[in-house]
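Input:
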Amino acid sequence: MMSHPLRMPLRAAALAALVSLAGCQASPPDALRGTGDLGVVVERATGSLALVDTGDRAILERIEGLGDLSHASVKFSRDARYAFVFGRDGGLTKVDLLRGEIAARVMQSGNSIGGAVSQDGSLVAVANYEPGGVRVFDSETLAPVADIPATWEDARGRRQRAKVVGLVDAPGNRFVYSLFEAGEIHLLDMSGATPAVTRFPDIGAQPYDALIDPTGRYYLAGLFGEDGLALLDLWHPEAGVRRILPDYGRGERRLPVYKMPHLEGWTLAGGRAWLPAVGRHEVLVADADDWSLVDRVPVHGQPIFVMSRPDERQLWVNFAHPDNDVVQVIDTETREVVRTLSPGEAVLHMEFTPRGEHVWVSARDSDRITVYDTHTFEALAELDSESPSGIFFTDRAHRIGL
Amino acid sequence: MMSHPLRMPLRAAALAALVSLAGCQASPPDALRGTGDLGVVVERATGSLALVDTGDRAILERIEGLGDLSHASVKFSRDARYAFVFGRDGGLTKVDLLRGEIAARVMQSGNSIGGAVSQDGSLVAVANYEPGGVRVFDSETLAPVADIPATWEDARGRRQRAKVVGLVDAPGNRFVYSLFEAGEIHLLDMSGATPAVTRFPDIGAQPYDALIDPTGRYYLAGLFGEDGLALLDLWHPEAGVRRILPDYGRGERRLPVYKMPHLEGWTLAGGRAWLPAVGRHEVLVADADDWSLVDRVPVHGQPIFVMSRPDERQLWVNFAHPDNDVVQVIDTETREVVRTLSPGEAVLHMEFTPRGEHVWVSARDSDRITVYDTHTFEALAELDSESPSGIFFTDRAHRIGL
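Output:
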């Protein structure tokens, strides 16, 4: 029987509509947006990443499926569109901030801590505990590019693999990292046709973390097994590694390694390095030229992160348990505490907006992120977030070592 | 007559397709992009803005209709999506980098030079020659927010309006600028309900340009009518303005004002200020703490821009006519010229990628932009561009004073 004459046009119309829509995604006028005012917050308990807008002071959406985020860190792609999330479980996830979804993901080791993006943006390197080494991936596809074992010879001459810690990017498409058990620093040059590693042995006992200064010149590794820090001047690698701040680490009592202040908690501002003391309720001040200790600022508790407002006029400091419900603000000129704030319980991290007008503070046990005006100290917004920890804004894409 | 049974389905299908497409913009998978790797190049002769991708090293498209771009400057919106173009003819144009088109435009004065975006991104201020003053606009809509005349009293007690030069943004949602005929610096605070202006009179004769350091603390104005520069410490405005580098300006012969080195040609790197000498073929080196002159580096010609690679290890320098077909590279540690390059004729500007792996150089009279690898000095790309002048990358959105 011939189809009813009215049904055929409708069916054809529906088919045509489907054919058109298949090649066409609805793009309302505000679908486009800049990436410069975006950021992410790691939400540990739910294993999610909250995507935030720092201009609107709002959470836009959440991305799930990132695995174990209990010690996750984040770096950004060169165009600021993607976040690379490094999970403790060895997961490397590339998150599209514009689509709010996972773009790529690899489980690239058994146990991992941190990573970095190369200077030119083409590579992502991951620091692995197990197996010990560095894996380098294409930042576009996450296809493997290089696998650099962190090998060393122990006292009995056996080749071992060490846990890699303190991985940072350095100018010249290089990466610098440390080997915990080996007491070595390695410099990986990815700028040529073949990866090239330069080893710096005997730099000190058990480097547990590291940082690179904002110009990418000085690599500083904290030592768990002895006092002081190891310094490598990347402008003069031929000069080797030297020890600085020889008394650093001498606290009232030894801290376990997981309580040692992380080097990301250091900051350089006003020609000085500002850093958490070990086992003392102080922020230490060192001369950034010769690394001599110049002052100690008494603070509320054991400092964890000492972070500089971008204009270097203030430092914001959070503290370890049981004093971790407080944040203090230090004036870099007077070196005095000018404000004490209560953002909530278990303050884990702070992040300044790129030009510093606001700071975002996570309070894990209050399930809250507070946004402060850094001039007036007014709390401008409080955002609900389950167990928030690390906060990362996209301007990090443009900064060496971040 | 009844329509042919086959024609009706086709017509209905076509209608349905049109209806679908009307509510739907084609958005191919790669329509979304980050804004962190974008930039613009001012093309004077054609009055156009070339939109560039620094990762692909390519010109994406050109935007026209920006009026007189002979002395245009560019600032970026907080989210890095828009460029604000300040034209000499008083035009203020907001350009959408994602759509490649003008989003808004106002002719806001008769004659203008430069502008800035407020720290929090909400305001755009424009420095006007005629009538002399600063106009502030909402950065979203370009709706007028404030009109601040640059008034002063001359020697005969008459109120006059002066040309405004050297306008910069400063922390706290403030702007700083200078009044050419008046010899004054003004500090405009836009953080409160009402704009508030603080005047600093008698700062020196004929400030013609200015800069603010990367922390937004020191405002430096160059003086055309006498030697030396005027310095305002924004952390201590109560201390007033003082004179620094008292011999600066003493060249072999006086230069006309349009040949005076612009303060944007200064850079701070490695604890030093590096600046073009006046009327001498030298880059001067000053201590950034006390502003004492510490060294002079002999170079190819009269320097115009002295720009630091982001890691502060190199300075790239271009020169005034007739030596403007050369760029030299200075090592900041040895203070020696390590390279001399020939990017073309009339090299007007240079811009480093955010982490410094490349630098883009415009050669106006060769109609060319050259992209160099800053480590190897290899010319990686040459792009055709008609009379290119200023080059600006979006990471400036995140940096105080830029």
